[in-house]
Amino acid sequence: MTDDRLRMPALTRRTLLAGASPLVAAALLPGWAQGAQGIPVDRIERLHDGVLIHRGPAVTRVRIAAAGVASVIHCPAAKLASAGGFFAHDGLPVRFAETGPVLAMIGQGIRVAIDRGTGCLAFHTPDGGRVIAEAPTPLPLAGVATTRRQGFTIGATERLHGLGQFREPVFDYRGQSVFLAQANSDAVNPFLVSTAGWGLLWDTGTAAHFRSHGRAIDYHSVAGDTIRYHVCLGVDMDAVIRGYRALTGAAALLPKWAYGYWQSKESYARQVDLVAVVDEYRRRGLPLDAIVLDYKYWGGNENFSGMKFDAATFPDPKAMVDHVHAADVHLLASIWPAFGTATDLYRAMGAKGYLLPGEHWSGGKVFDVSNADARALYWRSIKRGLIDIGVDGLWTDGNEPELRSTGERYGTAASFAANGWMAAGPIAENLLTYSWYQARGLSDAMRRDIPAKRPVILSRSAYAGQQAFGAVTWSGDIFASWGTLANQIVAALNFSMAGIPWWTCDIGAFLVFHRYPEGLADPAYKELYVRWFQFGAFLPVFRAHGTHIPRELWQFGEPGDPHYDALEAALRQRYRLMPYIYSVAAAAVYDGDTPMRALAMDFPDDPRARAEQAAFLFGRDLLVRIVDRPFEHASRNMQEFIPSRCVQGAAAPAARIEYYEGAQFERRVSSRLTDDIKMSWSGDLPAALAGKPYSLRWTGRIVAEETGPHRFSVIGKGAIRLVFDHRVVVDGASGAAKADGATGGVSFRGHEGDAFFDFTADLVVGRAYDFLLEQRQPTPDAVSLWFEWITPSIRRRQQLPARHALPVVLPKGRDWYDLHSGRRHRGGTAPMIDITLQSHPLFARAGAIVPMVQGLDRTATPPGEIEIHVYAGADGHFVLYDDAGNGQGHLNGEATRIAFYWNDRAATLSIGARQGAFSGMPPSLKMKLVFHDGANHASIRPLVYEGAAQVIPLRQSMRAEEPGG
To answer: Which of 49, 79, 109, 201 is deepest in the core (most CB within 10 A)?
Structure first.
């Protein structure tokens, strides 16, 4: 892919948009762009690699971009040459067949039926079965200006997943609506996947409203005059995701250390503090592979992200990195796309016109990442300040991008679009792609300049194709609660099903004090943290991070303390599975697999498994059930944020917020949509209200998702008045407030000085309740307002069960082994599984072959012995992968693969000949074969494998041991 392909082309006429707000000017575009179906077809031009459908001034191009993948562009004919986007491919050869009014374009793995009168497209499997088809242009959405609309017809019973990661997600998008826009905690990859064997990548590069209703889905984009999408067909969801990766890029393999444990916090303020943490992990023998240096290592905001260390707190950063490396630990450092006013980058970028006009909350400016020269300047500074002293990975924070705030999607889109233009064109037409440009530029530079290291880029945002750049998305600044933990499971599963395999989150949540003001002194939070840590141990990337509360294991106790012991057990379990994890990661790269798998992927015909949201497969053989409720300590503050999908307008997809200067609504400054009723720091206010008294007004509707009594809480500073369902339920004020100030971080520390109000209302599921919420604040920059609820299901979740046990859905078709007890369970059941603080339900499916090791505390240590656990009851297959663990040699075939086959009827394990080699490869492997059949003991057999194929009977001549794993 050439650098010219790094540009998402400008698609809107500059003269039409000049001087207008991009999201408003979008409504001025030509009517045909709302959907091409209303214009009759003039002619259809057949090409060797697709078709061109001509309709007046518009054209539709259809190509087969890869096997089973059709790429479609609807655009003005004059713009077709530049409308290909990031994923333009030369089309594969096609042939044609005519049946009445339909022209069939037949390509490898897909058939596209073209209505010769309307030009509408239908996408079929090779045998002619229709799976998705264009529909007539949908009606406009009320209350929003959009420029491109496209509808589709789908099947009646299929389930819909993917689209990225959202703070308040839904698992199945059937009958749902979602605003596809970036924000802190919302990372969009607009790839929708169906259990019926198709996926659709809505690839316009900008924000859009997605709706599913009945057998229809439709997209409403906020800007531009081009529709671009790709349809991927396959026999199952894995095949569909492989089509997505064939289109957008294969996943890049992270270095082996990146699959170990990352220790992080906001933030290690001094060099000596970071080094001490690494030393303490090694002293205790606790596993660790990476430590993360958050922002502020540069000093004050005037030096923000200048890629230089503050000499007062980090006197010798090279010595620090060397010390970390000597302990076999790797260092990642935070970088931002914004620069403080005293930095060399700020001056250099400003001199060349590479800075966007809007102000960042630090006082600096954000740069135009779509400009290739600006990216090169950015990289030179990163390399000189960080990479050349040995930093191993980059943490690209705030890359939606964040200006004053990215607390919710509508505000993030509006603040970014207000900057007008960047090199790629109108920002309003490129609202989703900032992180793609950044990750692509950094990845290319890292591969070129430091080939001995694989790129590792921790990113708060996402777009299609970022899996190819070594990018790991994390879910941003989330708030601690059991509801958030449950939401993070769903977010992770949908993000994985959208095709990007590398994901993580802030274990224990970034922000704690809102619901757990006592922090580590509150046993309820420590219980939540343990369960979150156990979840993290089965994520593709295992990383603890947050503010206010340090996350090192010894902060939760010492050996013998149940919380410390539980955390250590989860940490060691992660490393015990390292050969399995690295092999699963390699399968994602080379075979297009997905490491974190919703049960719907493997069991689409099992209704209970298809609906399961708290359990998933890790790889293809381990079933993990997360403990998503308390068993020992209920939370005293059990309220949760009202989900964004429940915050709607009377005639719009979201509520409306109005900002006023003055504490008595004297002068309206601005107004926009929002689906978030929360103000947590001064950056949430428009820049026009900085340093001034202000007033706020929300109007909209709350849609109930349950029937029964709901308890609402309103917390905040200033005078607060709430009218809910046409009655005044809150009318009061706090005492005098103190200004918060954007000091470089989330300024929320607690609710000191806030007023607390609550009320109860009986709600009916599906009904919308009008609300009007007003806040008047005479103290400039004092920001705090929180509107939350306790639903009946939230209250039930906080009721402590008498028995410490969870139901676990075990999918039909296989038996399942409890790895803690060794007991074998029949599939198609949901047994209650007893748990302790140290344990959560973990199962291997019959036929699984799972490699494990003992005693690792870092990935750099070769295992002394590999245990090969075989679980009887079905045939099985597993490929054990290994390589040098870093560098680019694996791209040239420098890796080994050992295939294991279990024949259940013959009770034999076949080990294939070792394929491949790499520098440092051990000539032989000491193995221990461990056979499980559900009895009370596991049988073991030692083996030295020297690379030759062999067949081993496993039920004879084996001695018994207590069950392992």
So the answer is: 201
**Is domain 640-797 annotated with CATH 2.60.120.260?**
yes
397 catalytic, yes or no?
yes
Q: What percentage of the chain's residues is helix, strand, coil (to nearest 5)?
A: 25, 30, 45
**Which candidate in 218, 225, 310, 397 is catalytic?**
397
**For residues 920 and 191, what is the distance between their CA atoms, to the nearest angstrom?**
40
813 to each of 296, 333, 623, how far by Cα in Å?
53, 46, 14
DSSP 244: H
Place of tokens 């009916």: 764
Domains 3-248 and 805-961 share a fold: yes
Topology of domain 3-248, CATH = Immunoglobulin-like (2.60.40)
**Angstrom distance (rounded) from CA 696 to CA 736:** 17
Question: What is the rounded CA–CA span in Å between residue 959 and residue 938?
Answer: 8
Taking each helix axis from N to C end, the angle separating 271-284 and 317-326, rounded to the nearest 10 degrees, works out to 10
In terms of Cβ atoms closer than 10 Å to its own Cβ (0-12, 13-18, 19+), residue 390 is middle
Longest dimension (CA), the chain: 87
Which residue in the list 168, 266, 368, 400 is annotated as catalytic?
400
- What is the structure's pLDDT at 564? 99
Amino acid at residue number 633: H
- What does the pLDDT look like over 946-959, one tens digit per residue? 999 999 998 754 44
Element (H, E) at 900: strand 895-903
- Residue listed under structure tokens 């000491």: 926
Write down the catalytic residue from 158, 477, 781, 933: 477
| Strands ordered across the beta sheet of 338-339 | 338-339, 365-367, 355-359
Rounded CA gap, 209 and 857, in Å? 46
* DSSP letter for each residue of 652-692: SSSEEEEEEETTTT-EEEEEEEES--EE-SGGGS-GGGTTS
Please measure the distance between the N-terminal and C-terminal CA atoms of the chain and give it in whole angstroms: 45
Q: pLDDT tens-digit profile of 596-622?
A: 999 999 999 999 999 999 999 999 999
The mean per-residue pLDDT over the stretch 498-502 comes to 99
User: Which pLDDT tens digit goes with each residue over 686-707?
Assistant: 999 999 999 999 999 999 999 9
Q: Is 477 a catalytic residue?
A: yes
Q: How far is CA 106 from CA 69, 93, 199, in A?
A: 11, 9, 18
- Report d(CA 465, CA 219) in Å as an integer: 20
Residues 324, 282 contacting (CB under 8 angstroms): no
Which residue ranges make up each domain of the chain?
3-248, 640-797, 805-961
Structure tokens at 513: 């004090």
Buried b (16+ CB within 10 A) or exposed e, 130-141: ebbbbbebbeeb
What does the buried/exposed string (b/e) look like for 679-694 if buried means 16 or more CB atoms within 10 Å of the residue's CB? Answer: bbbbbbbbeebbebbb
Q: What is the pTM of this model?
A: 0.95
Whether 405 contacts 684, CB under 8 Å? yes
CA distances from 663 to 355, 674, 721, 776 (A): 34, 21, 13, 5
